[in-house]
Structures are given as structure tokens and as C-alpha cells.
Amino acid sequence: MATGKDDPSATSQSPVLLELLRLDTGSAMALVGHPIHVMMVHFPIAFVIATLGVDVFYWWSGDVFWVRVGLWAAGFTFWTGVAASLVGTGELLFVRGIRMREASWSHAIAAMTLVATSGANWGLRLNYPESILPHGLALSALAAALAGFAGWHGGKLVFDHGIGILVSPRN
Prior knowledge:
Number of strands: 2
Radius of gyration: 20 Å
Helix content: over 70%
Structural class: mainly alpha
Distance between the termini: 17 Å
Strand content: under 5%
């Protein structure tokens, strides 16, 4: 009988590892073991921050160049957010261990609100470019705050609950 650190049932294991062993928290949508959602979310987050930065530059300079850049940044924010959301929704629906976590639902609601806000921001820029200041800037700031909130809960899922990570039961 194995004892000590070679014994996967030893009581010295971390609570996160014990929870991983109890529930299925692996990824249902992965590429060679790497969760696709985790790989995709970096793009909408980067575009959210870029859109906010572009709006600040436009506010500061008044140069219409930033209007065009903001239109593209907001569009990429929306479409990469939709793609990441589709994969994230698949994870939520197909993995019981993810569905059972409160942070999963908080993350999903914040992310869906972020995608809706990004869509509104892009639509504003497409149809009413003269309203970028102040409405587009306000939507960009709201989107950045929502990205922070969604990211916080996404990080909780990974770091506190071990969602989507591959962990050996051996320490």
C-alpha cells in the first residue's frame, strides 16, 4: 500500500485537487488538451481595452482617424467576443462540474453583458459616428469594467476551482 506523497488519497492534498478528483472539471471543447475558450478570450479582452484607448485618443486629439480605428476595434471586440462566448457556452452546458459553480454563472452573465455592450458600441459607431463622444466612450468604459468583472470570475474558475486544467492526482 502506497503512503505519503505517492498516495493520491492522502489527506495532505489541496482542496482544489480534491475537488478536481470529485467533479469533472475538464474541458469539453479542447484542442490537444488545451481549452479553446481560454485561448480565445484574450482577443476580445485586448480589443475592449484597445477600443477604450482609441476613444480616449479621439477625445484628446479630435482626429477622425481614431473614429475609423475605433469602428474596427469595436467590431473585432464584438465578433471575437461572440466566438469566445459560443465556446464558453458549450463548456457551461456540457461539463457538469462547471455548471455547478456559482462563479461560472457570474462569469457567463458578465460575459454576455459584455458582448451585448460591445455590440451596442459597434452599432453606435456604424450608425451614429457623431455620438462616439460621449456615448461611445461611455460604452467603452462600461465594456472595460465588464471585462474586468468577467475576467475576475473566469480567473476564480481556473485558479480557485481548477476548471479546464489538466492535473495529475500525483503531487
